[in-house]
Specification:
CATH topology of one domain: Rossmann fold
Strand content: 25-35%
Order of helices and strands: EEEHEEHEHHEHEHEE
Number of helices: 6
Oligomer: single chain
Helix content: 25-40%
Number of strands: 10
Distance between the termini: 37 Å
Length: 206
């Protein structure tokens, strides 16, 4: 008897402004890379899946429809890391519920950074801290919009390792938007390309 597996994420006929309709299924633990030219709608797609952009169509997380879950709770489980991170408080530590020394160490960040004002952070430090902040909620789906765009090679490798370890530990799934062919081939189980208002599977070549 075959076991029926519900996809972690199901996107059915999603339309965001002029982008779509889009269909996509992602299984638990799977990482999907999305490539495509600037302006093709990759970030819009992530925002719609995170319920942060008006859209038509159906989005389900583990079989439960987006409109059946309060938006704040949905966004804790379907976590978006935008290209430019957002900070609400003056001090870094105020954005964290717990002091995760292990996570900071993995990102080559000293514990003292939690006492810093956000204004002191470099763009790369903001990017790494935003990822750690996102993982605090233990999301089931990570939506990553160019998560290593401001990072050097060493810190890019640290972020890739962090996301990989988190998914292995929790079974979380990932949608990883990126422009670097080599990176998507490293991190993604399969790659799709956004162009012409829709998604198309590639042969591993973004």
């Amino acid at each position: 008897m075959e076991e029926s597996l519900t996809p972690r994420l199901q996107v059915v006929d999603l339309i965001i402004h002029q982008v779509g309709p889009i269909r996509l299924d992602i299984m638990a633990g799977e990482c999907i890379g999305i490539s495509g030219p600037s302006g093709s709608g990759k970030s819009l797609f992530l925002r719609a899946v995170a319920d942060m952009e008006p859209h038509e169509g159906i989005v389900l997380l583990d079989g439960t429809a987006q409109d059946q879950i309060a938006a704040p709770q949905w966004r804790r489980q379907v976590a978006l890391a935008p290209a430019e991170s957002v900070w609400w408080f003056d001090t870094v530590g105020d954005h964290f519920a717990d002091s995760d020394a292990t996570g900071l160490a993995r990102m080559e960040l000293a514990p003292q950074i939690l006492s810093w004002p956000v204004s002191r952070l470099s763009s790369g430090e903001r990017q790494r801290l935003a990822l750690l902040r996102m993982l605090e909620n233990r999301p089931r789906l990570l939506l990553l919009d160019e998560p290593t765009a401001n990072l050097d090679e060493a810190n890019t490798a640290r972020v890739e390792a962090l996301i990989r370890a988190y998914c292995e530990q929790t079974g979380a799934s990932v949608v990883w938007v990126g422009h670097q062919k080599a990176q998507l081939q490293r991190v993604a189980d399969r790659i799709v390309r956004m162009a012409g208002g829709g998604l198309a599977e590639t042969a591993g070549d973004p």
